[in-house]
Amino acid sequence: MKTHYLSKEGKAFPLQIVLVVPFLIQIFGAVSLVGYLSFKNGQRAVNHLAEQLIDRTSEVVDEHLKSYLSIPQTLNQINADAIRRGILDVRDRKTLGKYFWDQMHTSDLTYIGIGLTTGEGVGAARYDGKTITIDDWTAKPPNNVYTYATDDRGNQTKVNARWNWENSSEPWYTQPIAANKPIWAKILIGIFPTGPYIVASSSRPIYDSQNRLLGMIASDIHLLKLGDFLRSLNISQSGRVFLLERDGTLIATSGTEKPFTFINQKAERLRAINSSDPIIQNIARHLQTSNGFNSITQDTDFQLEVQGKRYFVDVAPWRDKYGLNWLMVVSVPENAFMAQINANTHTTIALCFGALVIASVMGVFTSHWIVRPILRLNRASKAMASGNLDQTVETSGIRELNTLSNSFNHMAGQVHESFTALEKSKEELEYRVEERTTELKNALGELQRTQSQVIQSEKMSSLGQLVAGVAHEINNPVNFIHGNLVHVQEYTQDLLAILQLYQQHNSNLVPEIQTAAEDMDLEFLQEDLPKMLSSMKVGTDRIRQIVLSLRNFSRIDEAEFKRVDIHEGIDSTLMILQHRLKAKSEQPEIEVSKDYGAVPLVECYAGQLNQVFMNILVNAIDALEENNAKRTYQEIQDNPSRIKIRTSVLNSTWLEVAIADNGVGISKEIQQRIFDPFFTTKPIGKGTGMGMSISYQIVTEKHGGKLECFSTSGQGTEFIIQIPLRLKVHGVV
To answer: For the chain, which residues score pLDDT lower than 50?
Structure first.
């Protein structure tokens, strides 16, 4: 029996180890798991933030490219139309050079010029970015190009240089002639006394009123300015943004490196894989080895390690309708976001190690405190079992056991109270964590909503500025044409009257005049020319109405808060949406009925209310088009789609605007969520779910009004907007 007892005792673990080791393992595991989850959550947050930054940067670059690269093409079209209509005479090169000089002052271009089929040409240049010169050349070299300095009115003062030029040997002349359409010519690079330059040339053929080819017209932009814009982006300090052609040559970069290099004192285009910038070089090599640059047809995201640093990279194709096919690359270093995450990780590790050390010391102390009375009793028991009866417990054995029991019970009570308090603290901590988590979720939702609203507001602001700018730019030439049409019409009538008098009083025409009159069909020309001028006047009137509607909708030239005619805003919105309301091949037009009441001027944020009208009308049109897709053309004619707009005044103090359609209606479940942020029933890519939410905020918070939706399934939907005619204070918070 004694041997069996000893063998079992040898295999058992000491009580102190049993108490300490599991406790330490649990603490170590819990702390490690918390640290790991914290690090992974930080990494996910970094990835999400990097994606948002890259997407925002790509949108900014895309908008700038569309805006910047549309200038030369638009200017070419305006000049080509002016030449075709006879407003500009290509034979008067001196006047034409001065006209181009004026255009250079109003646009950020490097060169504007024409080359004629006769070999002659004229252009205005800004090679150094500041001084504008005029180039005038004849048909035959040598030294057939004269570069003139100009005064502050564009008059030619002196010849700065003479050099050789031949239209038929230059790509910017031959390429658009061969293509017979507007194109972007091959990017050119060269060196002038003012320094190297790299330009993209937009070219198009020009014709006279008889559709005979006169030559071509071109406008150049300086691509180094694209690099200046890329360097101005917030991302350019830590990351890289650059543009590539499909053959891998650089166009512009946010770095300090130029997109060209010098070989034997000759400027040549720089390939991205030969860039001195290691970030650009490594990204280009990665793209080249991954099926090449031409294989990229959609947004491509990947991560790349450069010099020991990880980068987030986004590559997107960029095209326009005139033939440009570029690659836009945005890269952001991971360490730009990971610095705080790594610092937090180091702090977490230090805290975990400190907690482990403290827990170990406390565990050893606690185990020793618990085990010591038991060891004393064990030693006394072993001594008594071995026959050593000379123990203090012999005469006072019961008293010692009672004292030990009382002490043990007291200790047990303290441990129980400690664990009870710990459990209570744990419950309180869990409750506080849950409460804090709920608050963070709510804050995150509010942040996302606010962020989307800010983005939407920025988009609407940018759209308003763009619309107002376009309206302003269109308004000037249209007013010029419209104002001159009246005089042209009067002059034409006078000339035709004189021609008729001449025919009446001189019936025997010279044979040459008689032949010429028959060749040009003089009778038809006399009859059709006034009609053509009347049609042109109707067209310019229509353009002026559209420009007025665009300006009224954008409200960019007015104060943000003022008294306005609300009907003008509704009419301007309808004018902008006219292309969606008019008849199409697959469906008749959407009828719009307006029941305008006697409404005085309303104090409001006109631009924001126009946004509300736009959102509601677009949703109504979408609902009607969705319903029409399920019906035949005859069914739509029998029961046409309608939108009814009604305005009235309530109680002499409130404005009510009701917009109703006869679509399929909205279910009650959707009506309850229609003003919730990010809620949409449209397919992905056609709706963000923020339109009605922002509209609700504009009406209720900005104007202190009400926006309600009433709908019956199968009978259509009606939105009712109510706002006070005058606000007590300017703005409602």
So the answer is: 1-9, 384, 389-391, 393-398, 400-401, 405, 408-413, 415, 555-559, 685, 729-733
CATH code of residue 141: 3.30.450.20
pLDDT of residue 559: 42
Place of tokens 């032949």: 515
Strands 591-595 and 642-650: parallel
Q: What is the pLDDT of residue 538?
A: 60
Distance CA 624, CA 472 (A): 33
Q: Find the CATH number of the domain harbouring 671.
A: 3.30.565.10
Does a structural domain hold residue 128? yes
Going along 320-438, which residue ranges are E strands?
Answer: 325-333
Q: What is the pLDDT of residues 440-464, one digit of tens each?
A: 777 666 666 665 555 555 555 555 5
Give domain status of residue 327, yes or no.
Answer: no
Q: List, in order, residues 6 or more apart from 570 with CB less than 8 Å away.
A: 594, 613, 645, 647, 657
Say how many Å lie between the first and final Cα of the chain, rounded: 89
Beta carbons of 123 and 114 less than 8 angstroms apart: yes
Task: Please tell me the predicted confidence (pLDDT) of residue 310.
Answer: 86
The per-residue pLDDT for 469 is: 57
Give the integer Cα–Cα distance in Å for 299 and 319.
Answer: 13
Q: What is the pLDDT at residue 639?
A: 86
How far is 68 from 225, CA to CA, in rounded Å? Answer: 10
Q: Which pLDDT does position 262 carry in this prediction?
A: 81
Tell me the three state secondary structure of residue 336. helix
Selection from 622, 618, 625 nearest residue 573 by Cα: 618
- Closest Cα partner for 725 from 649, 645, 644? 649
Residues of the domain holding 631: 591-733
- d(CA 474, CA 468) in angstroms, rounded, equals 10
Number of domains in the chain: 2
pLDDT of residue 400: 45
Which one of 182, 206, 222 terminates a domain?
222
CB distance 119 to 138 below 8 Å: yes
SS (H, E, C) 112-145: EEEEECCCCEEEEECCCCCCCEEEEECCCCCCCE
Q: On the CB side of 139, how many CA atoms lie within 13 Å of its CA?
A: 6
What letters, b where the CB count within 10 A reaches 16 and e where it falls short, cover 573-611?
bbbbbeeebeeeeebeebebeeeeeebeebbbbbbbbbb
Amino acid identity of residue 594, one-letter, is: K
pLDDT of residue 727: 72
Asked, for residue 188, whether it belongs to a domain, the answer is yes
Taking the C-alpha atoms of 257, 260, 263 and 265 in order, what is their torsion angle to the nearest 10 degrees? -90
Q: Which CA distances in Å does 347 have to 32, 35, 689?
A: 13, 10, 41
Residue 642 contacts residue 627 (beta carbons within 8 Å): no
β-pairing, 145-150 vs 156-163, is antiparallel
CB 498 within 8 Å of CB 471: no
Helices (H) and strands (E) counted in the chain, each on its own, are: 16, 23
Does residue 725 sit within a domain? yes
Give dist(CA 666, CA 687) in Å, integer.
Answer: 17
Among the candidates 193, 222, 251, a domain finishes at: 222
